[in-house]
Description:
The complex is a heterotrimer of chains A (about 325), B (about 325) and C (about 300).
Chain A: E1 6-16, E2 29-40, E3 45-49, H1 56-63, E4 71-76, E5 79-80, H2 86-93, E6 96-99, H3 113-123, H4 130-143, H5 160-172, E7 178-182, H6 190-207, E8 210-215, H7 218-224, E9 227-232, E10 235-241, H8 242-247, H9 252-260, H10 299-303, E11 309-310, E12 317-318
Helix pairs in contact in A: 3-4, 3-5, 4-5, 5-6
Chain B: E1 12-25, E2 28-41, E3 45-49, H1 56-64, E4 72-75, E5 78-81, E6 84-85, H2 91-97, E7 102-105, H3 109-112, H4 119-130, H5 135-148, H6 154-157, H7 167-178, E8 185-189, H8 197-214, E9 217-222, H9 225-231, E10 234-239, E11 242-248, H10 249-254, H11 259-266, H12 306-310, E12 316-319, E13 322-324
Parallel strand pairs in B: 3-9, 3-10, 7-8, 8-9
Antiparallel strand pairs in B: 1-2, 1-4, 1-5, 5-6, 10-11, 11-13, 12-13
Helix pairs in contact in B: 4-5, 4-7, 5-7, 7-8
Chain C: H1 20-28, H2 31-48, H3 50-53, E1 72-73, E2 80-81, H4 92-128, H5 130-145, H6 148-159, H7 163-189, H8 193-200, H9 205-241, H10 253-260, H11 269-296, H12 301-305
Antiparallel strand pairs in C: 1-2
Amino acid sequence: MDEPLLRVEGLVKHYRLDDGSAFRRSGKTIRAVDGVDLTLAAGETLGVVGESGCGKSTIAKAVLRLEEPTAGRAWFRGQDLFGFSRRAFRQVRRELQIVFQNPYASLNPRMRIGDIIGEPFEVFPDLVPGADRKRRIGELLERVGLSPAAAGRYPHEFSGGQRQRIGIARALALRPALIVCDEPVSALDVSVQAQIINLLEDIQKDSGVAYIFIAHDLTVVRHISHRVAVMYLGRIVEEGSVEDVFERPTHPYTQALLSAAPNPARSHDSRIILAGDIPDPSDPPSGCRFRTRCWKATELCAREEPALAPRTSPAHRSACHHAADHG
Amino acid sequence: MTREPQAQGEGRVLEVADLWVEFATPGGTVYAVNGVGFDLRRGETLAILGESGCGKSVTALAVMGILRAPPARFRARTMRLGEVDLLRASPAEMRSIRGARIAMIFQDPFMSLNPTKTVGQQIGEVFRVHRGVSQAEARRLAIGLMERVRIPSAKRRVDDYPHQFSGGMSQRIMVASAIALGPEILLADEPTTALDVTVQAQIMDILAELRRESGMAVVLITHDLRLAAETAERAAVMYAGRIVETGPMADIYARPRHPYTIGLLRSLPDDEGQRRRLHPIAGTPPVLSQLPAGCAFVPRCQWAQARCSRELPPMRPVAGEQACACHFASELTLA
Amino acid sequence: MMTAIDHTTTDDGAGQSPGLWRYLRALARDPVTLLAVVFLIVLAISALGAELVAPHDPTRLSLAMRNKPPLSPGLLEGVTHYLGTDELGRDLLSRLIFGGRVSIAVGLIGALFAGVFGTTLGLIAGYYRGRTDDAVMRAVDAMAALPTLLIALFFLFVVGAGFWNLVIVLAFVRWRVFARLTRGMVLSLREQPYVLAAKAIGASDTRIIFRHVLPNILSPLMVLFTLEVAVLILAEAALSFLGFGIQPPDSSWGLMIARGREYLTSAWWLVTLPGLAIFLTTLGLNLVAAWARAITDPVQRWRWLA
């Protein structure tokens, strides 16, 4: 088997809660990501869905080492990502980029667009000779559908969608092999959302970049992804091809999530309304983390944490003791 | 979340006609709402649909009488709540109407709750203000309301503070205090936008149940076409401060007539996962301080003709109850 | 593939960095700030060129001219003491000009030292967190808990009074204000997506701090700086009053107030005029700082420069 572009094993990211006292840290630990495996092939889009607090954005930050992971290993083109020193990691990072959710906070308000998009060339000066940078910035702006004249302007002069395009241009500057898109369209209006989704698809078609596409909007993830991972409370509960996960969901949480999304084309009677809230991530339930809200839960679920097991196809896996039962 | 058959008697609980709202800002006058009118029938859900800045929230605030003026200036031809003329109501009358006959919930429940008072005090406050009941009685009523919006162990949680509740639970608390006095109308401004989808389903389910039980009419202000299509009987689609299309929700969702509504639907990924290319609406919404003379959608409209930038298209019936403000509505269909 | 080029931006022409001319024009439309700027310029000129500006030698005594009110004629023909004279018959205007030089210098240089030191520590603490942060913040807390005036007095008692000792001790007791504000702002900025994006393109810590963090906290720091100049001018006054600050025959506004205090009932101008000088200087600095904050903010700038 070919080595995938990205392989993550046993990724864990815990946050210690600081109680504000100077001399003692509180015992509480948020288990944001608690043992996650991922693989991603070149040119592929992996959708990561889940509700707030499930750890999907933490995965993005940990893989890019914007925050140091607590445990786990990751390989990018076979290179051990977490083994590098911070300094050596900079070279690898060129190929790993990120696009953020909030277009209003992701651009430095005091920098001109040209300086924002051109900053990668200043960080890696040997990449593009100084004389070519201006032209290259213009090309990047045109690539994302903006006029090269935008380079002289400031972020506040642009709408949310336009700012998101600028963020994408910055991510593209270093010609990455993987872009993590952390809720890239959820802050945008529907009509603008579609513009950005199309743009991301076009870029992938042209350059073969791979995406990890993190979102809570299921229809968007279904539209753009090749494969999907569903997360709940720091763990992946189901993964597989888009068709497998969306058409033949086997984990109760996936089923509930899909059924909760508004869909006028479907009858309402089949809707699953979950009880209660997501449990406190500093104190997850024993065994299966979903059992407190699950209508299939039994005593086994409280005792034993289910492992990801193959379902309708070898690549379609879910972590549920009762996934095979129908009903 | 079943659809109610239309209430009998065509009882109109709210009538708004020709509502205009503008804001004076240092950058010029912002024309937020430009001649909006709609009716709300007893017990129905009306969706006001549109993207950010289309004027849908401002419309609701104007109806509630809680627009801050200045900077806002507003006028309307009609604004009636049943037999009450809201345009002539004194501030004292408006206060007695707000909360009692017409209530509102907002997108961000945390911002609407006072962090220094228990949720029981906040829900009970409505009774203390409008009914003058005792503190103990208010607390007892608050518990009942919390149970109605299905907050688990309400008796214990009534003395908790807002920060001890999740976003979804906080929104339930907002719903509880909104329905406390059994209002005829609930204005719900993006009530689930800040919430996760499973929590959204819970809240919408609670709202549907309350509506069934009490016959309250709901104005659902949202940008989410699917949520509206699933919940509302009728809809009004807003663009740049005007209603561009109204009618039965199912008709609008199935056969949108206005180019903007058509564009909105075509920019959505497919319901059933068919992977076709999305068709976004080109460009961006107009700046509300510089609205054109004609149809505001012209710069983004693929069917626009010279006439469209000269003449503001009036609202005209297209089919059944569906009406649309486009010169060429009868010639357009969702491709 | 085809992507329509989107030329629309929300506001045409505001992108160019405004030239000096536009700043001046904006200033001309804001008379209060303009007045403050003019006052501060006059103050700066008179402080720098005190020898040329002052009408009299500020140290020349004249027992015959003690405690004369403003606009009193001098002993010589055609000489007027516009702001009167002090208890030793020295020309008050001249003393205000020379004393202002010392007061402003103590305030500016002290606040500059405190600002540079405190901001640097705040940046390091907020950006790197961990033990450094703990250490810096404990020091800040400790400083806040200490009776600063007593510490300053003790220090000046040990090493002796004098201009530079005064500046250093004032910077030492006030750096914590800058450190705390800076750290707080850095803590929230370091989580901003644009800072994370800079990390993602491989920007070094130095680059992130100087390109992305510092420019975005500079405006509040500028405002704090002007406030601190005022605080230090007042602190200088207190220390000079107690005899540990500026020593005669040098003078400062604070020392003038201290000395004039005895004559408060008989010669009001001895206290009032230096007090007014301190008040106007502080007010002017604050007005200019508020204006500068608004006008350097790219989001608000258009309102002022339109």
